Amino acid sequence: MSNWFSQNFPNVVYQGWSGDTGWLTAINQTLFMTFWSAIFGGLLGLIFGFGLVVTGPKGITPNRILFWIFDKIVSVFRAIPFIILLAFIAPVTKTLVGTQIGSTAALVPLSLGVFPFFARQVQVALSEVDSGIVEAAQAVGASFTEIVFGVYLREGRSELIRVSTVTLISLIGLTAMAGAIGAGGLGNMAIAYGYNRFANDTTLVATLLVLILVLVVQVVGDFLAKHYNHK
Amino acid sequence: MTNPIISLKNIDVTFTQKKRTIEAVKNVSIDVNRGDVFGIVGYSGAGKSTLVRAINLLQVPTAGQVVVNGETFFDGQSSKGVQIKPKDLRDRRRKIGMIFQHFNLLNERTVAENVAFALQHSPLSANEKKAKVSELLELVELSDRSEQFPSQLSGGQKQRVAIARALANDPEILISDEATSALDPKTTNQILALLKKLNAEFNLTILLITHEMEAVKEIANKVAVMQNGAVLEQGSTLDIFTKPQAPLTKEFIETATNQDKALAAISATDVVENLPAGQLFARLTYSGNSTNEPLITGLYQNFQVVASILYGNVEILQGTEVGSLLVVLSGTEAGLAAGLDSLTDQGVTVEILKGTKA
């Protein structure tokens, strides 16, 4: 088995396991980038998504100015192609993290790249919460925070999980692109050590690993979304 | 005369959309007394829902005055319309229960959690809240469903959960916004019976918004009829049913008592279609005392007027009988005239539907 593998996938073996250019390192870098940018971008996206819904024309505290601000920020950031955003905000990254390269530096563009996408998804998910339920909560004297957490978040939970899954998968795609600016990870492995060196076996294995990651996220996301749906 | 528990004065609600202004509610004044079941009837789009949302300021009016329990919530005359602090408003809203056409239960919470949601600000201890929830569920006969989710319930059961939630903070007022409109007739009657019971047992004041006059007929003691944002007429249910003024009110009542169908069928019969000269096709509406008088016999004995009854209907409204008859009257010219006068004297409303009175 291992003999067959090293014969057919020589470059994969050459990369090693835990070294600087090893597979474990690449997997860790991808997981690291996905996880932390999901946290930062996710929080930012949630805040903007909620902001858009509660200040929107049909929200619980309609506010044209705030809504306009949220809306424009999200639109502008969504309009910038990610690969350009990477380069464009490099100086910001440098001030924030101290470096422009590496997995940690990639968190800045990744978070900024994913949050507007997520914010729109959150906005759509929360808009599906029946306005009648919100009204019923207001009628029993629920406060702003109770409506945000007790109604929107709770009622929209299943839908939020579903859009988070979609976002997480697209984020994994972005981490591969971030590899292009030296962030490492499986994307970098597939391009720098696979494609650029004509090592098709490396590209193939890196792709398969990304595929598995996506699949796991999808399956877990679908399960949770279904579990929390009582509609 | 006691002070009304809800007093709406000259309420206007106007929505402005880009270039259009929609007057959803126009100069409506309504007083609801403690213990009333006040029906507000009208077709969809008449402004009923918008009007009642002005009571707990879910909809802030454009002008007018909202006074609930002696406290002014809104005064359009004042520079800042809303007279009550947000925190106090939330507190007052807990004393105004509300139920909806589509129930509006929290889908992701169990029946018990839905009721408990309304108790978040209650001064009760955790144990007392628990007891309160089971007491309420018992009241609406859903104790065995407390751990289920709304999606597992039927429409009638969902509405009963909504009623339990609306009653959680022992409100004095219950606003029912088309609460039976999505339910089948049998379930509708169960819900109406429950509302009636709540009104009788707890002296709960109920505002019943509906497009079904049947519901009003069942439980309301007062009624207002709305069209295009304005109240066409209002009064006691008995008065409205026996002496409706506006055409829309008549239409609603005819539908509610099935008279529209009877009238259509009877108008097409040979007797009415080819009504001989000198005969009258008329509707007699009477209530209360006149029900006990032998009307038809009296007509014949005193005026030699023969009345053949084509359709008859008796409703009991607020304990009073209300009857209506579709009859063909025949007799001498003088007899008919005198007979009709005597009916009117006895408090019977006479409407000539076909034929001419001499």
TrEMBL record, chain A:
Which cellular compartments is it found in? Answer: Cell membrane
Please list the residue ranges annotated as the ABC transmembrane type-1 domain: 27-221
Q: Which PROSITE patterns match?
A: ABC_TM1
Q: List the residue ranges forming a coiled coil, or say none.
A: none
The membrane topology noted for this protein in its Swiss-Prot or TrEMBL record is: Multi-pass membrane protein
Q: Which GO terms describe its biological process?
A: D-methionine transmembrane transport
Transport among keywords: yes
Give an example GO cellular component term for this record: plasma membrane
- What Pfam families does the entry give? BPD_transp_1
The answer to whether UniProt assigns keyword Transmembrane helix to this entry is yes
Task: List, alphabetically, the InterPro entries matched.
Answer: AA_ABC_Transporter_Permease, MetI-like, MetI-like_sf
Q: Which UniProt keywords apply?
A: Cell membrane, Membrane, Transmembrane, Transmembrane helix, Transport
Chief place where the protein resides: membrane
The membrane spanning regions, by residue number, are: 31-53, 65-89, 101-119, 163-184, 204-225
Q: Which family does it belong to?
A: Belongs to the binding-protein-dependent transport system permease family. CysTW subfamily.
**Would you tell me the protein name for this molecule?**
ABC transporter permease protein
TrEMBL record, chain B:
Transmembrane annotation, as ranges: none
InterPro entries annotated for this entry? Answer: AAA+_ATPase (IPR003593), ABC_transporter-like_ATP-bd (IPR003439), ABC_transporter-like_CS (IPR017871), ACT-like_dom_sf (IPR045865), MetN_ABC (IPR041701), MetN_ABC_transporter-like (IPR050086), NIL_domain (IPR018449), P-loop_NTPase (IPR027417)
GO MF terms on file?
ATP binding; ATP hydrolysis activity
Q: Which UniProt keywords apply?
A: Amino-acid transport, ATP-binding, Cell membrane, Membrane, Nucleotide-binding, Translocase, Transport
Tell me where on the tree of life, at the top rank, the source sits: Bacteria
Instruction: Give any single GO term for biological process.
Output: amino acid transport
Question: One short Pfam family name for this protein?
Answer: NIL
Q: Record's PROSITE patterns?
A: ABC_TRANSPORTER_1, ABC_TRANSPORTER_2
Domain ABC transporter as annotated: residue spans: 8-253
Q: What is this protein called?
A: ABC transporter ATP-binding protein
